[in-house]
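Hello Y.,

Per our agreement to keep a running log of every chain we model this quarter, I'm adding this entry. I've kept the format consistent with earlier entries: sequence first, then predicted structure.
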Amino acid sequence: MSVSQAIAIDKPPPQTRGWPRARIIGYALVGLWILFGIGIVAYLVHAWQGGAFFDRYAPAYLRGLGTTLALVAISMVAGAILSLPVAYGRMSKNRILSGLAYCYVYFFRGTPLLVQTYLVYYGVGSFRPELQSVGLWWFFREAFYCGVFAFSLNTAAYQAEILRGAIESVPRGQWEGAASLGLHKLQTLRKVILPQAIIVALRPYGNELV
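Predicted structure for the entry above:
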């Protein structure tokens, strides 16, 4: 085969000219979404100019925003604390401890969060006499506390798996190198493994937060 024939074979295909049907449909859909967004913004501006819409709904929206931020912040911190023993149990060689941690993660990751919230608020709340006898009714009678409790248990299961995967992603040689330097396992985990694992876990943690 000559050089000219090889060059002729390797030429890229000619570019399509004109407006294919797929491109026209894509541009039309994007244009419709843009018009829809402009219409929503124009409606909100027009409604807020009179003041009635803002005076009626703004306080409720602001209270809801504050409740949402507080619920997310508290549940994420509580879930992060609870995820540490769960992640340890998932990585444990003890079958009982590992099995309990697996069942916990499997249940909370395998059922909808809304169902878990209903079970805590309506299910646990139905045991009012028992909760009053142990002094926990003040906690489970409040919807916010029940939401924090359910969200914390749910996010702890996800954060435990994120932490476990991040720790196991660190090469085994890091443990062996730290052991050769005389570091204890806890020292190795805190000074060598966790700094590397946190970098790996940052993106999944951000996804869980959202």
